[in-house]
Amino acid sequence: MLVCDIKKKLSGFSLDVNLTAKSGVTALMGASGSGKSMTLRCVAGISRPDSGRIELNGVTLFDSEKRINLPPQVRNTGFLFQDSALFPNMTVRQNIMAGAKKKPRGERADAAVRLAETFHISPHLDKYPHELSGGEKQRCALARIMAGSPDILMLDEPFAALDSHLRWELELELAAAFMRFQKPVLYVSHNRDEVYRLCGDIAIIDRGKNEAARDKWELFENPVTVHAARLTGCKNIAAAEAEGTRVFVSDWGIDFERGEKGGGIRHVGIRANNIVPASAAEAADDIAASFPFEIVNEIEDTFTCILMVRKRGTKLPPIRWEMRKKDRAALREMPQELAFLRKHILLLYS
Amino acid sequence: MDLFPLYNSLRVSVIGVSAAFAAGVLAAFAAVRLPKTLKGVCDTVLTIPMVLPPTVVGYFILVSLSPKSAVGAKLHDWFSLTVTMRWYASVVAVAIIAFPFVYRTVRGAFESFDRNLLDAGRTLGLSERYIFFRVLLPNCKPVIIAGAALAFARGIGEYGATSMVSGYIAGKTATVSTAVAYYWQINQDDMAMYWVIINLAVSFVFMMTINAFTKPRVRG
Q1: B180 lies in which domain range?
Q2: What is the reported pTM?
């Protein structure tokens, strides 16, 4: 288990991370420059926090009060860099063997062959990194890390430097590696789909501060904060005001009954693919708010259609409504009203 | 034909530049880790022999190593060693003159080196020593060799400081460049010419070496 409670001043903002990660994959999700990578660097020991404590499996790696700061060499962490950071002067085999430095020489050579097999890079053992594709580089870097049997695996946007068609292959490889690993994995990314597929728990980080890690289903269902809503892909977020049990959203020109006091609600959100024609609701009671609408703009995406809509007759900022193309075709007979269903409205407290 | 000046030049350059090379690489490595202001100061001090007239460097060497100086006197008392007007005084001169060439080129390579590679090495549990010798140095090899060749070319043609600290003693301290000056002064133009040609040949070979190692390499 990893316990990380650190502060560090960075240019522009300060990092203040309080994170616990059990065995399994925990994502640290945030926009670029939110301090995610720095957090990993601090855990690995290649950057130094100003204060705080880092503990891995009961071993204190860093403690500013007790003046403990173990060098990265003895922390036994596995760190996968964005650009794989393979040693250009060494072959794949030598790179993996360098990762197994603690083992005796004969064992290292065997480990390189075995790990190359596991990560499907056996044909490339005697190639140099510049002869590999981006995905092969990352797999080699992963094999090199695994050669040292780390206590924790940390991945810093491992797909960032890859062409999109190479990502899927590596993602499958990663998922398999995580399954075998059985120890904590910290996964840093800003890509919600990647995170959703690969991780169990997700901690949102924004401008250096993080929210506690939450189960991914729970987080996507109820993001609670604007940052979490945005990072989980909610495209429509508007300021809201609660008065008694009613919630008013002036940007969308709607208000709805909440049933209970809405104290603390600052924003509401609705996902682009959760908007439905009012006629599609099963029961009138399911609908929080419905309104006549007009289409401002229509954009055809690869597999979906995106309609930018707003309340008819207003100049309000448009709302993004997204649907599969065949649903769009069925919509030629335009519905009169759109509906936001109760179960789909995200109540956000920040 | 007495080839001693060539032999002496090569001897002085190889030893002097080797010393400058080791010191330059270590100094560059240390300088990269220094805080900015301190680095600026160290940089200036370490590269100043590059812009000073060699005679000034020679003067400093004489002042600090001659038998009348504090260090020179100690060397003489303890080891019966006189440094000045010997071939090894040229070594000291060449080392000091060549040092900035190694230091500057290598520092540039270290500064632009991908820090992730060093950090990756550390998280893999590799020792700082291993990272320095097996990751940093090999990956900076072309630049380091170019720096060494540049230093060597400068060292082998060194005249100003060498002539001050070692003079021209035939068969003892004569070098290619001091031989040229010597033969010119005593009106043996053909001998001067002979050493000029040798000098040109040596310089040519070294510039070829530099170019061979600094050729841009295409990496995927």
Answers
A1: 4-214
A2: 0.83
